[in-house]
Every structure is written in structure tokens, then in C-alpha cells.
Amino acid sequence: MGRAFEYRKATKLKRWGHMARTFTKLGKEISIAVKAGGPEPENNPRLRAIIATCKRENMPKDNIQRAIKNAMGKDQSEYKEVPYEGYGPHGIAIFVDTLTDNTTRTVADVRSVFNKFNGNLGTQGSLSFLFDHKCVFTFKKKADTDMDELILDLIDYGVDDEFDEEVNEDTGDDEITIYGDPKSFGDIQKFLEDKGFEIESAEFTRIPTDLKDVTPEQRETIDKMVEKLEDFDDVQNVYTNMKPAEE
Asked: Where is the TACO1/YebC-like second and third domain (predicted)?
């Protein structure tokens, strides 16, 4: 398996944290999708994809509908996607994706954590070369799926030629995970839906291009920094180029 999948397997269970925080973050993503494309999932591919992710994360239907309704309200806050990036302790690169309605508050929160751990918050784009920005789709594998043929078709949409195949421990279904060009998110989603695949989740991620080794003590410090960042409601995801711990 490639670098992307090594990284994914080591981080997928840590990415969202506690359930309440997960629902808050998904609610913000619903808000952005609704404001951009309307409240009807059948006419809004991005909202449709987020709802699939909500279901995968066991977000109750009432919560989903309430988030859609709230996003349609005139008094609702306008969330912006703002990335922050810099170096944490021991030279580890850290990328923080946020959704915020108050950038002054968010940058102050993020900066406070970098300062506490003797890190340096850089300018936007300064570390983008250290992370590949990808869209990620996980969908159920059909019995007659020819993966070689499928991937060849998807390559035209900027999808990588490597894929991850595993069994969902909760449902027992065979699932495929693919990575692609973020700009092709809508096209990839439409292709999968037109081919009759049931999409389980669709999101964006950042995969480090060069993983760095750390000692157990260094890992503990960096993990604490990441946890502090993830405690903020505005923070959606935190990525590092720290090499995953061996199982």
C-alpha cells in the first residue's frame, strides 16, 4: 500500500474525536454546503456527500435536518474555510483546517497553542508543499466490480491509481476508498453515483509528502499539541507530517 493509506490507517480513528465535537463540525459543513447549493440534497451534490458522511458517523437524522434548517436562517453565521500552518515542536509540520465565523478568535486560539508548545505559526501557503490536498471517497464495493477498470475510468478525473480496500467492521460490507484531485470532487461523486455505487463518506484530507521519525517522548508532546488544537470548535482537522506509530 502507498504512503496515503499507511497514513490513513494510522489516523482515521483519531480524526474526529468525541461524538459531540463530530456533530458540531459536520453541522458547520452542512451549513456551508446549504448556503452554496441549497437545502435539497438531490440538487446539491456536496450536501448529499456530507449527509452520507453524517450517516457513517451515526449522526441522528433530526440533527441533520436541524442543521439544514438552521443554515437557511437569515441570522445564521457565515462560516469561512481558513487553513493555518506552521511548525510544532521537534520540527514537525502542522496543518490546521478550520471553519470559522470569527477569524480573529480562531487565529488567536490557534496561535496560543503554537506558542504554548514553542511552535511557529507561519503564513498561509508556507507549508502547502509538505502536504498533498486530496478528496477522499469511501463507497460500497459491488459484487461485479472490476477494480482495474474502475480505477482506469477514474484516473480521467484525477483519481490516484492506488486504492484502499477493506471490510467495514460494523456492517461487514466490502468498501473501497479512493483519493483524487479536490477540484474534481463533484465530477468524481457524479461518476460514482451514475455507476450505482453507494457512497459511504466523502471529504477532503491532507496527506504529508515526507513523514518524519520521532521518539516516543517527542510523539507524546506533539499528540498533546494536536489534541489542544482539536479541542477548539472552529478546528475541523489537524494534520502533521509525523510518521505514524508502529502497531
From this structure: 79-242
Task: Supply 115's cell numbers.
Answer: 506558542
Tell which phi-psi region holds residue 73, choosing left (phi > 0), alpha (psi between -120 and 50) or beta.
beta
Residue 121, beta-bridge partner list: 86
Q: d(Cα 22, Cα 236) in Å, to the nearest integer?
A: 9
- Of residues 28, 7, 5, 25, the one with CA closest to residue 16: 25
User: From its phi and psi, is residue 238 left (phi > 0), alpha (psi between -120 and 50) or beta?
Assistant: beta
Separation CA 195–CA 117 (nearest Å): 48
pLDDT in tens, 76-117: 568 889 999 999 999 999 999 999 999 999 999 999 999 999
DSSP 3-state of 47: helix
**In contact, 238 and 119? CB cutoff 8 Å:** no
Q: State pLDDT tens for residues 179-208.
A: 999 999 999 999 999 999 999 989 999 999
| Residue from 91, 83, 84 nearest 121 by CA | 84
Per DSSP bridges, beta strands 131-140 and 199-208 are antiparallel
| pTM exceeds cut of 0.85 | no
Average pLDDT, the chain: 88
Q: Determine the pLDDT at residue 164.
A: 87
